[in-house]
Design goal:
By secondary structure, this protein is an alpha+beta fold. It has 3 domains: 163 residues, Nucleotidyltransferase, domain 5, CATH 3.30.420.40; 101 residues, Nucleotidyltransferase, domain 5 (2-Layer Sandwich), CATH 3.30.420.40; 72 residues. It is 31% helix and 22% strand. It is globular, with a radius of gyration of 37 Å.
C-alpha cells in the first residue's frame, strides 16, 4: 500500500496533508481542521496538542507550552510524561506523532501502534519561509532520533516554478523574486532561474501585508480593546495574527465591515468598523520605500534590470490589487499566485513522492529517543549435511530365515470326550 503524510511547519502552526491509494492529496484532519496551532499541554500521562492546549496556555497553566521555537533555545527546560523527564524540544515530536497515529487508525484502518511503522513511515516536511535552517535541522533530527528513517524535505518553490512554467505563466528566461508575508514579516527570496537555489534573500519586519490589510487589522484590535477594556494583549501580536483574516475580508468589502474576529488566544470578539475610516488612514501611509529598496538591492547584487525579473506575490496578505499596483509603478512584471496554482503544486509534490516509491536514503541512524524494537532477523536455513562416504554406508546384514512351519495333517478322527457330571444331591 502506498501512502505518505506531509507536514507544513511554520513558527505558529503545523498543517497536515496525506496521500493514500484512495486519495492522491487530502487534508489530514484530526478534529475540525488540518491546521494545528503550535501549543502543547502535558500533565502526567495527559498530552494535548493544538487549540485546547492554546486555551490552557493563555490561562497561564504551568503545564501548557507555547512559543515553541523560542523555548527550545533553553537546553535546561524540560517536561515530564509517563513519569519520564524529557527535553522540551521533544514536544513537537510527540504532537506530530499523535497525527501520524490518527492517520494509521482512521485512514489506513490499521490496528497496530505507530511503533511498528516508524522506521518505514513516509514522512515529509515542508518548511515555511519563517523557519530558519537550524530550526529545520532540529525538527529533522528529532524524528531521525526517534526512529523515523523514511524522511525527506520538500523543495516547494522548485515545484511551484515548474508548474507556473508549464502553464506559461513564468517564462524560462526570467529570474524570479518570490515574496511571502508571514505574521507581518515580508520575506523576499531571489532565484536566478527556476532550477537554482535562492541566491539572495531579505526579511522586512512590519511589511508583510498590504497596507490596507494591516490598517484594518489595527482598527479591529482597537475596536475590541475599546469594548473589552479588561483584555491584556500584545497589540502587535494580535495585528499580525489577524492579517490573513483581514485579507479575506477585503476581498468582498462593504461600507460597514463587521463580524467576529478570533484573537491569538482562540477567543472570538465582535467588531464593527467603517471602510471610510480605513481609507482615511490609508492616506497617511507612506512606507513603500523600504520594500522598493530591498528589491533594488537584490537586483543590484545579481546585476539584473527590473525587466528581467518576475515578482511573485505568494501569500494572501500581499496578493491584492492594491499591493501589486504599487509594485507595478516601478517594476514591469508582478503577479499574484492563485489558489489553483498552490493546489496544482501540492498535487505535483505528492505525485513525485509516489513515483519515488516513498523511500529516501538517509545518513546512518542516530540512537533513538524512544525505544524502537529492531526487526527480527530473517531465519536462515541450516547448512546441508555433507554427503556420506561410501565407507560410512552400513553394509546390509543377512538375517537367516526361520524354518517354515508346516501344518500336521489329521490322520485320525479320535475326538476327546469330557468326563461325566457328578449326580445332583437332593
Amino acid at each position: 500500500m502506498g501512502f505518505c503524510v506531509l507536514a507544513k511547519i511554520s513558527k505558529r502552526t503545523v498543517t497536515f496533508w496525506y496521500q493514500s491509494d484512495s486519495n492522491p492529496y487530502a487534508p489530514l484532519e484530526m478534529r475540525e481542521s488540518n491546521e494545528v496551532p503550535l501549543y502543547f499541554y502535558v500533565n502526567g500521562n495527559d498530552f494535548i496538542f493544538g487549540a485546547a492546549a492554546r486555551e490552557r496556555f493563555y490561562k497561564n497553566d504551568p503545564y501548557a507550552y507555547g512559543n515553541y521555537f523560542e523555548i527550545v533555545k533553553d537546553p535546561a527546560k524540560h517536561f515530564s510524561i509517563y513519569g519520564n523527564k524529557k527535553p522540551v524540544k521533544q514536544l513537537f515530536y510527540y504532537g506530530v506523532e499523535q497525527y501520524l497515529s490518527h492517520f494509521l487508525n482512521t485512514v489506513l484502518y490499521k490496528a497496530e501502534s505507530i511503533e511498528s511503522y516508524r522506521q518505514q513511515f513516509p514522512l515529509r516536511f515542508l518548511f515555511d519561509d519563517d523557519i530558519e535552517d537550524n530550526e529545520k535541522s532540529l525538527i529533522e533530527n528529532l524524528f531521525q532520533e526517534a526512529g523515523y528513517f523514511n524522511l525527506d524535505r520538500i523543495a516547494y518553490h522548485h515545484t511551484l516554478f515548474n508548474i507556473l512554467t508549464q502553464k506559461q505563466v513564468v517564462p524560462n528566461n526570467k529570474a524570479i523574486l518570490l515574496m511571502n508575508g508571514i505574521d507581518d514579516i515580508l520575506y523576499l527570496n531571489f532565484y536566478k532561474d527556476i532550477k537554482t537555489e535562492a541566491l539572495g534573500s531579505a526579511k522586512l519586519p512590519g511589511q508583510g501585508a498590504d497596507p490596507r490589510v494591516k490598517i484594518l487589522a489595527d482598527m479591529i484590535v482597537e475596536y475590541i480593546l475599546l469594548q473589552h477594556s479588561y483584555l491584556s494583549v500584545n497589540k502587535d501580536t494580535e495585528i499580525a495574527f489577524l492579517l490573513p483574516f483581514c485579507a479575506a475580508l477585503l476581498q468582498n468589502i462593504s461600507p460597514i465591515i463587521k463580524g467576529e474576529a478570533e484573537l491569538s488566544d482562540g477567543n472570538r470578539y465582535w467588531f464593527n468598523v467603517r471602510e471610510r475610516n480605513l481609507n482615511d488612514r490609508l492616506q497617511y501611509y507612506a512606507n513603500d520605500g523600504m520594500i522598493f529598496a530591498a528589491i533594488d538591492d537584490l537586483l543590484r547584487a545579481n546585476n539584473l534590470q527590473a525587466d528581467r525579473v518576475m515578482i511573485l506575490l505568494g501569500s494572501e496578505e500581499i496578493s491584492t490589487t492594491y499591493f501589486s499596483d504599487k509594485l507595478l509603478k516601478k517594476y514591469h512584471h508582478v503577479m499574484a499566485l492563485q489558489p489553483v496554482d498552490v493546489r496544482d503544486t501540492m498535487l505535483a509534490i505528492f505525485q513525485a513522492i509516489g513515483s519515488a516509491g516513498y523511500s529516501v536514503k538517509l545518513k546512518a541512524p542516530i540512537a533513538p529517543l524512544v525505544s524502537v524494537r529492531p526487526p527480527l532477523p530473517t531465519p536462515k536455513l541450516p547448512p546441508p549435511l555433507p554427503p556420506k562416504k561410501q565407507s560410512d554406508v552400513p553394509k546390509p546384514i543377512n538375517i537367516p530365515r526361520l524354518p517354515e512351519i508346516k501344518a500336521t495333517p489329521n490322520t485320525k478322527n479320535n475326538p476327546v470326550k469330557p468326563p461325566p457330571l457328578p449326580p445332583k444331591k437332593n
